[in-house]
Inverse folding.
């Protein structure tokens, strides 16, 4: 079951965890980790995402993030979609 949390301060710092559907171990392959990291870098360069700490596990990622440009909830939504190209 997924839980939806609200970001009340769009420019505050948050600890965020994103999981892979059905907890599949997709991040055991370098190519998928590279896609994820490229998406994070894109959000940093173009959307104002600030990443203070992160760790990629085999089936989820933990981030401590904030934004100084766009709404953080919009950035997280776009990061999960990976529709940047």
């Amino acid at each position: 079951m997924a839980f939806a949390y609200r970001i009340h301060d769009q420019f505050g710092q948050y600890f965020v965890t994103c999981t892979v559907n059905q907890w599949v171990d997709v991040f055991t392959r370098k190519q998928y980790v590279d896609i994820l990291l490229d998406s994070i870098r894109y959000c940093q360069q173009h959307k104002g995402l600030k990443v203070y700490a992160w760790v990629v596990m085999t089936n989820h990622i933990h981030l401590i993030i904030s934004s100084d440009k766009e709404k953080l909830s919009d950035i997280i939504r776009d990061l999960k979609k990976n529709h940047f190209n």
Notes: The chain has two helices and three strands.
